[in-house]
Amino acid sequence: MNLIQSGLTSKKTKWWCGCLIAVCLSLCTGTVARAQSSASGAIRGSVTDPTGAVIPEASVSVVNVDTGEEKLFTTNKDGLYDTVSTPHGQYRVTITAPGFEALVLGPITLDIGTITLNGHMSMGSQFQRVVVTTDTAALLHTESGEQSTTFDEKTMLQLPQVGQDWANFTILLPGSAGASSANGVTTPGAAVSLNGSMPYSGNFLSDGGSVTNPHSADVETDTFDTVAEVDIEDSNFSAQYGIGGVVFNQITKGGTNQFHGSAYEHFQNDALNARSYFNAPDQRIPPLKFNQFGGSIGGPFWRNKMFFFFNYDKSIDNQSYTNFASMPTDALKGVNTANGQFDLTQLMPLDGNGNKLPVTDSNGNNIINPCNGNVVYQGEIFDPATQTTVNGQTCRLPFATDNVIPAGRVDPVAQNMLKYFPQPNQNTTQGINGDYYYVVPTPYPSTRIFGRIDYDFNSKNRLTSSIAVRDANSPVYSEWVCPVACYHDDTSDYSSQTSDVWSFSSNLVNEFRFSFNRQGSYLTPFSKGLGIPAAIGLQYAKADVFPNLTINGNVCCDSPYSGTNTDYVQNVYQPSDVVTLIRGKHVLHFGGELIMLEDNSTNWGNVDAGDFTFSGQYTQASQAATGSGAGWADFLLGDVQSWGATNSPLFGGRQKSPQVFVQDDIKLRPNLTVNVGLRYQIQEGWREVKNRMGDFDPTIFNTVSGNYGAMWFSPAANRTQAQANVYSGVLPRLGFAYSIKPTMVIRGGWGMYTTPWSVDQYGNAKGVGYGQSGSAQDQTNGITPLTTLSGPGNFYGTVTPLPYLNASTSATAYNGQNAPNYDPYHTPLTYLYSWSLGVQREFAHGIVSELAYVGKHGANMQFKGDINQVPVQNLSPNDNPTGRPYPQYQQIGGSTFNAISNYNSLQAQIKKRLEGGISFSAAYTWSKFLDDMDVSPFNGQGGTINFQNFHDPGSNYAPSNFDIRESLKSSIVYQLPFGIGQRWLNQNHLLDEGIGGWQVSAIVINQSGNPFTVVYNGPNNSYSQAGAWYPNVLRPAQYINKSINEWYDPTAFVTAANATFGNSRRNSLRAPGIDTTNFSMGKTFHFTEGVGLQLRADATNIFNHPDFDAPDGNFNDPVNLSTPGRPQGAGTISSTTVLGRTMQISARVSF
């Protein structure tokens, strides 16, 4: 099979998927129902006599096997009991009633959820006991219709794991998907889309308290060895859970009556790893030196009363990554050339015969230079000093020597910057694409400490408190030589929660919780304070850091930048209270919470020396010759197309969201439960503690321009928030679970949910007008540059100085500039409508299966772009700013909330819990995910954002970046049946040392590819093109026999005419799929009872199979196949989504 034919493409794979669906149709099973305490579980059931009549006033004793804690309950008049707010653990349940034999059930494993445990009593003396020891309670769950999954500690420890993070396993979930441009298809945790939700649109909890940061909705997951289980709820969950279409609830470990603990070491080294596909034989595997070590201990402070758990974890992570960049050669930098001239000849692409390639129009006709009547070639540069007008067209002549810039014409600031470009170290035969191979170290040391205390005041009152601290201080490097693009990252995290559970009676329980989460991040560029702007002669710098450059062009060159300067200090306060009341057939839960968010931060890169863009427009032959010119040539000449700069203050963002709920789980019949819930939330807009906010507002009259559209600044017009408060957050939830028979259940539900208002998405108004800032861009369609690097005044005459503004709260302060990003004041809540219907069934030997239809619809979703884009009805070949909706401004980056999404899937699962030494799971998903735009609360995590017409989001409706049509995800754990306690050779202890205690496990991911968009990569000469520029389609572009050299046919596309939209669609083609296997093998040595040593080796991508990333979607990028195994250009693939085989060696002592 061709190496790139991975994913669900082979007949054999599809046959297995079909078999899995058939099995699930005949077996059918489901997932766990949730308890109504967000950090604990519940055992619920009814007690009946031999005739099926309910037994009221029966006594139910629930004893924690590990801690000895006992809770007593009494069935109500309907024979119903519910052990609300019961911690994770193993329990033994004893039911007694006068005239009946005592019934003992267990030990039973209780996770975060509600499990059904009915008591069928036999006539006789209560001093006689009927003992049932099989743990059957957790296989079928009949109390709700939600879709959820629980990863328990034992499962996570058994599966392959490189890098100890439970979030690595979320890719196993049905309906989970990543995007190749959103940190990798297999990126775990919050960066994964689940059942139609965007990454980071959920809520992360630790022991029931929120740990989701307000700025980017990101999270620091709990240390792996402190997690007892993780409950992931992704559809139709209870009204108790609020913000987020997905809930990740991490439950930490606690102490028991026995002292227990572990010590561990995890080791990784590049000597253990395999070379990735695109690493040439003479290029080293990325250096890696990784050690993670630590230990934990738990036990009793006071037996049966007070318990503790403590963990210390240290990581010394010296990783690195490799890639190729494009750096200017000596000729491009004027080194070792005649008279120091700058020879740009190598920027001109050639065909297979060595001929120059002409620039063509949308009909394939050669472009002619009006100035001299010659054909214009791709990459050919022209002298801005010769600019003139011929027959109404602005044009330029070539330099005296073709594609050579004399040394005397180079801008002094550009000349001084050349020394910061690394020297190429690779030989290429065409252009300079990929001429620099780099190895970037990514050190990331981290220290974590965790502690938890559980205290039972008595059988009716339990207190739990936990705290987690993390500290990480690391330098961040790039392909550039420091101090360019390097910075320090000092980050610390702190989270804690305390909960108090009161059982006033068997029918009334109250749980109060207060949680606090804090993250502080401080980023500082290496270049800060080194005097670089003064040394290179840059006039515009208001901060002593390296400037940020953007050098456009098809071939050259990568762009240097300063490295980020920013401060983030984020706090989350969350008091909550939940009451559970059992009345007859009703189990009522009601309560509320107050989420208080603080974001004390600066803008990302709040201090800079300016952002300068060099588009290549000023060295084109003419405006029509968009394939000529070079960004590198514009940079050498110092011709700036756009500029922006900021020095913003610290922003004290505040937001509150009070929320209340009621949930009623109604046991209509012993085999039918209906879940009815309603949640109400008030969403406050973001405000600033000192009213340092401002934004564009289309409803304010601009007194200078004489039309609407001006700035507001807090507290003008009594407006002190970026968004108005939203009071319409009514979120109903419905569900049901109907047991057709004891081994089969039909479950379903429908619900409404919202997403978090992160600062990344909703905080554009922060600090606007309260620092020094400025922005501007060329308004002449590439005729006259905005300015030059060395300052105003050049060959074109006087150029207006850059408008670097001091703090101003004038409503017209940004006239003539790019306005600050816009958020509508009346921003609606984003609603997610979720539904599912499934059939589940239980079989012998711990086998369960499920077949479910799961869907989700998103409304009021964010659509980002330029709200000042020229509308389609105003387009013309020579667009100018007067066609904009607000001509007094240039670009106005911003959002509307009128986008939608639709997700539909068929999901089939089959699982077997560990029995007979084997457990396995397999999940097949067939889905379709369409939307207008993929926007995540964490900027950039939704993948590439492409659009053409901002004013018509529906024209962008297409497959989502996360639309993976088919996936098959499976795992298996197998304990070899040899040695003590196993089926064979279980008598000889000496032999057991060699052959006993072995276990292997594997994870296999097989899925079809993500979609990608074909765009035009070139100067944008039209004010209509605020986003991506889609080409026109001439014919189908997808090859039948695809390869990394030709994944699609670039010649099937052609550039759309200037000031028009192309007819190609967003995400119209598919990237390669994924086919990867992770593997683990380990052996456990048993020293004494309860004390053991495990040695194991884990590997990701064990077969070192290359899973390729999306190809270059810029259809006009020149193709270069001269370097074997490293293609470049349109339609070629030059990277992988999964790294080469990576191994980890581990040792763990447990007692």
Describe the structure concisely.
The chain is built from seven helices and 58 strands.
Helix/strand layout:
Blueprint: H1 11-27, E1 42-48, E2 59-64, E3 70-74, E4 80-82, E5 89-96, E6 102-110, E7 114-116, E8 119-120, E9 129-132, E10 147-152, H2 153-158, E11 176-177, E12 193-194, E13 203-206, E14 209-210, E15 227-235, E16 247-252, E17 260-269, E18 289-302, E19 306-325, E20 342-343, E21 382-390, E22 393-398, E23 404-405, H3 412-417, E24 436-443, E25 446-458, E26 461-476, E27 487-505, E28 508-525, H4 532-536, E29 548-551, E30 566-583, E31 586-601, E32 611-614, H5 631-637, E33 639-640, E34 642-647, E35 651-669, E36 672-683, E37 687-688, E38 694-702, E39 707-713, E40 726-741, E41 744-754, H6 759-762, E42 772-777, E43 787-788, E44 819-822, E45 831-843, E46 847-866, E47 892-915, E48 918-931, E49 958-959, E50 966-975, H7 989-995, E51 998-1007, E52 1011-1012, E53 1032-1033, E54 1053-1054, E55 1069-1070, E56 1074-1088, E57 1091-1100, E58 1142-1150
Parallel strand pairs: 1-7, 1-8, 6-9, 13-16, 29-32, 44-47
Antiparallel strand pairs: 1-4, 2-3, 2-5, 5-6, 10-15, 11-12, 13-14, 15-16, 17-18, 17-58, 18-19, 19-24, 19-25, 20-23, 21-22, 25-26, 26-27, 27-28, 28-30, 30-31, 31-35, 32-34, 33-43, 34-42, 35-36, 35-37, 36-40, 38-39, 40-41, 41-45, 45-46, 46-47, 47-48, 48-49, 48-50, 50-51, 51-56, 52-55, 53-54, 56-57, ...
GO cellular component, one term: cell outer membrane
Keywords: Cell outer membrane, Membrane, Signal
Signal peptide: 1-35
